[in-house]
């Protein structure tokens, strides 16, 4: 049996795509909103999937789960997004067992983020695990793995400076605006949508510019008003979008739409307009570039902006990796132990049968047979024997697979242990 094949017929996989090989357009085709994730989890249940976590951010969409073949997970992703299997094959990655475990550690610890040290994904993993649990799609292995990744992430945050300095996509957005626009304090800024990066960008603009001309428009006005109250923004009706764009010097688009919400026909411009599209999928049609007064910048471009802060962060990668290896080793030790637990249980059951049979014989033979005392002694001996076997299996240098096979053979445990794996 494969060391990490927890359910005999199933293997643990991480399948997905990220900014490394998939551009914003392709990532958009595979992106999943909350409804999409729930539909995928429903389908996973219907297909008899044992355990599954799905995450979808602006930089990546991933599924971690158990399957006989990765295509089962790929099909779930393609059935619930606009992406095709052919597109997936061109840009995706598939990791199995130990590689999948290592991948989740790197992603959750910010080492695989588009901007090094961005820990946004760890909250996504936590939320995704919680949702999977509601759908009964979080087995003991996956829950333990997620908790180990959270532990590694916390340690890296506290024990290294890999996330020091204000570097994130929202910070890069603000940096870009400052480098591109003069007198930002007096510019009219319009935020369309309530995406997290857009909100953070506006919060930073409020902090650093004291700008009192920032307006928020969202399809759901209640949500807009709630957010506007936090960041000191003005709120306008969705019906006024075209009019507000005509007043704007800077338009920040952060909607969760699956199709472009801004195109050149909506823009009636009398002055230059800088558009920052902070959405995945892209929410601004490329045709706006046909207008001379428009400058369009997308999230992917902003993510490439590097500075001294990022260079300093890279110095802390080795320490972060050593923390991951330490926590991962603890997880794998637990996994190795879990592997022989069914056999130890089966052995204990077999020894208990031996004891019960012998007690029955002695009970018939002896008139003054002390049953309570005999059972206590028997149980203690059984516990000591099974403890010895367990300690042996935990020792370094011991071939666990060979030892397990020998124990099963000697005590004829195959049938007993098979039902527990």
Concise summary:
The chain is of the alpha/beta class. It is built from 17 helices and 10 strands. Strands 7-6-5-8-9-10 form a 6-stranded parallel beta sheet, with helices on both faces. It has a 4-stranded antiparallel beta sheet with strand order 2-3-1-4, sandwiched between helices.
Question: What is the makeup of the main sheet?
Answer: 6 strands, parallel
Mean pLDDT, all residues: 84
Tell me the count of domains. Answer: 3
CATH fold naming of the largest domain = Beta Polymerase, domain 2
Number of helices: 17
Order of helices and strands: EHHEEHHEHHHHEHEHEHEEEHHHHHH
- CATH class term of the largest domain: Alpha Beta
% residues in beta strands: 5-15%
Strand order of the largest sheet: 7-6-5-8-9-10
Based on secondary structure, the structural category is: alpha/beta
Rg over C-alpha atoms, rounded to the nearest angstrom:
29 Å
Tell me, briefly, the overall form: elongated
Q: How far apart lie the N and C ends?
A: 11 Å
Which stretches are low in confidence, meaning pLDDT under 50 for 5 or more residues running? 1-8, 415-421
Amount of helix: 40-55%
Number of strands: 10
Assign the CATH superfamily of the largest domain: Glutamyl-tRNA reductase, N-terminal domain
Instruction: State the CATH architecture of the largest domain.
Output: 2-Layer Sandwich
């Amino acid at each position: 049996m494969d060391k990490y094949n927890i359910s005999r017929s199933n293997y643990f996989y991480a399948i997905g795509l990220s900014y490394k090989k998939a551009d914003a357009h392709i990532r958009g085709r595979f992106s999943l909103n909350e409804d999409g994730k729930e539909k995928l989890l429903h389908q996973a249940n219907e297909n008899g999937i044992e355990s599954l976590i799905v995450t979808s951010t602006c930089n990546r969409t991933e599924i971690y789960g158990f399957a006989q073949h990765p295509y089962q997970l790929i099909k779930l992703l393609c059935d619930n997004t606009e992406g095709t299997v052919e597109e997936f094959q061109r840009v995706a990655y598939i990791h199995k067992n130990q590689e999948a475990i290592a991948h989740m550690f790197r992603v959750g610890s910010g080492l695989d983020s588009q901007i090094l040290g961005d820990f946004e994904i760890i909250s996504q993993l936590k939320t995704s695990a919680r949702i999977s649990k509601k759908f009964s799609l979080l087995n003991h292995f996956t829950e333990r793995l997620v908790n180990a990744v959270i532990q590694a992430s916390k340690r890296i945050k506290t024990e290294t400076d890999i996330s020091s300095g204000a570097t994130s996509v929202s910070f890069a957005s603000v940096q870009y605006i400052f480098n591109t626009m003069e007198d930002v304090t007096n510019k009219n800024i319009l935020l369309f949508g309530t995406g997290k990066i857009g909100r953070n960008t506006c919060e930073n603009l409020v902090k650093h510019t004291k700008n009192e001309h920032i307006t928020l428009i969202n399809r759901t006005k209640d949500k807009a008003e709630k957010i506007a109250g936090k960041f000191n923004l003005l709120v306008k009706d969705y019906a006024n979008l075209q009019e507000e764009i005509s007043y704007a010097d800077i338009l920040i688009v952060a909607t969760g739409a699956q199709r472009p919400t801004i195109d050149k026909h909506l823009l009636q411009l009398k002055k230059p307009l800088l558009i920052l599209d902070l959405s995945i999928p892209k929410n601004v049609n490329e045709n706006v570039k046909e207008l001379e007064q428009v400058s369009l910048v997308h999230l992917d471009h902003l993510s490439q902006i590097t500075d001294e802060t990022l260079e300093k962060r890279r110095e802390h990668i080795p320490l972060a990796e050593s923390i991951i290896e330490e926590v991962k080793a603890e997880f794998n030790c637990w996994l190795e132990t879990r592997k022989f637990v069914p056999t130890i249980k089966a052995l204990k059951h077999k020894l208990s049968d031996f004891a019960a049979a012998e007690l029955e014989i002695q009970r018939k033979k002896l008139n003054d047979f002390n049953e309570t005392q005999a059972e206590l002694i028997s149980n203690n001996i059984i516990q000591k024997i099974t403890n010895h076997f367990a300690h042996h299996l935990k020792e370094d240098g011991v071939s666990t697979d060979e030892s397990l096979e020998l124990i099963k053979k000697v005590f004829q445990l195959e049938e007993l242990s098979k039902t527990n794996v």
